[in-house]
Amino acid sequence: MVEDKPISIGNIAYVLGMSSKKLHRWYQQVLSGFTQAKQQGEISKNDLEVKEQGEKKIIKVSILEEKNLGKQMAIDEKQINGTVYTILSNRKTNKIALMASTLKTKHLMKLLSNFSIEKRMEVESLTRDMASNYDWLGRQAFMNAYHVIDKFHIIKNVMEQLQSVRIRYRQEALAKRREIKETKQKYKEQIFANGDTTLQLLAHSRGLLFSMPNKWSEQQKERAEILFKNYPELKQAYRLVLKFRRWFTPPNGKTTYSKTREKKKEKLIELISQFKQSGIEEMKNIAYLLQKNLSQILHYFIEKETNAKAEALNRNLQRFININFGTRNIDFFLYRIKLYFA
Question: pLDDT tens, 281-303?
């Protein structure tokens, strides 16, 4: 069966010695059951019609399966063909419970209201990113669930702020060079001991700022020394981010959650204070981010839950797009998504 795995129809056609387009058309119209499902109204039966700014709009709901709800759920978004879909999936089974072409809480809540309250009350945890719409949706739909903001989303946001400091310095260097050249003055490029110019130093430092110091190569160690000597603010920002990344390391042994949480909370509040006191705008942004989501970040230490399964599901969806003629027929594509992922 084609839907047992996200396999390319082109590969099957090659083995059978026939045209991949012909097999794709044959599969779509005859073998997959898509034509019959369309005739019976199964394809768009869950679509939601809404009225926005006086105009009617159809929200495509390709998957709405109560049976796929479980104790551990994840919510994320995926862009397909320029349209962003909300995907609610079961972290244990990797099956999708809801897939709809909207990010709006009121529309998603209306769809989730089709699931029984009893089933929704069984959800114990919900992993998500920091989007406020998913926060409010989770509170309304899954009243018994605690929220865990995905560790990797948080670190990604923190690293983006750190890189923003580097980019800010690089933009300043570019502006300075431009101003000198516009006044037709002679511009002398500074060359550092490792052979980098100012712009090269800031460009080549991107990778080392993502890495832990013990992972640096000899070349990166030399570059880091030059970078931090010339840009002490960047050194300060890097050290603060490093402290936060180390804070996220789960404790060893059988430490109870309550003890771990209290210790981690105290340390995080201390870190937030350090971010604020740094005087660096980007670090203040991190402080605000952490303070706003403090409780949900600390929930990570209950079971060390992340959104990794949801991200893996996103990658599988992308692979599905890449190997199966893209999404030219969106209805057929979403039908196949349902067959395989729900």
Answer: 999 999 999 999 999 999 998 88
CA–CA separation, 13 and 22 (whole Å) = 9
> What distances in angstroms separate CA 250 from CA 151, 261, 325, one per listed residue?
11, 10, 43
Do 228 and 131 lie in one domain? The reply is no
* Same domain as 103, residue 181: no
Of 319, 341, 331, 317, whose CA–CA distance to 28 is shortest?
Answer: 331
CA 241 → CA 12, 134, 162, 237, 263, distances in Å? 49, 26, 7, 6, 19
Which residue from 98, 95, 102 is spatially nearest to 87, judged by alpha carbons? Answer: 98
Tens of pLDDT along 134-182?
Answer: 999 999 999 999 999 989 899 999 999 999 999 999 999 999 888 887 8
Give me the number of domains the chain comprises.
Answer: 3
The C-alpha atoms of residue 293 and residue 200 are separated, in whole angstroms, by: 36
| β-bridge mates for residue 56, sequence order | 51
Helix, strand and coil percent figures for the chain, each rounded to 5: 60, 15, 30
For the entire predicted model, the pTM comes to: 0.81
What is the distance, to the nearest Å, from the Cα of residue 321 to the centroid of all Cα atoms in its chain?
18
